[in-house]
Design a protein that fits this description.
By secondary structure, the protein is of the alpha+beta class. Helices cover 20% and strands 21% of the residues.
Length: 107
Amino acid sequence: MVSNDSRPPDSSIAEDETVHFEWDQNGRPSASIVDAVATVTDSEISEMPPLHEVVDPDALNRILDPSVDSADRDDTRAHVSFQYHGVQVRADPDGIDVRPLDDADVQ
């Protein structure tokens, strides 16, 4: 599970609010992203589309694994950004940012 450091767990997200989640040091980045999106969208994970339909989970895990020392990374500022389950996701070694899509985001 990821930890949300910017709002109470039972509050709803505003249309333009970005919610930041810290990485779960014991989990895989791809699972943490799915957990974060489920939390923000108030969805059951079992009802969400598989993450692999929008991005390669294995690649996410290799790029964003929080257990890898930043000195061992090729690029410590690597990030990924994609749309998933009605939100914009941006993830980097510092955590996950999730915000609702707006008209400019729709691809």
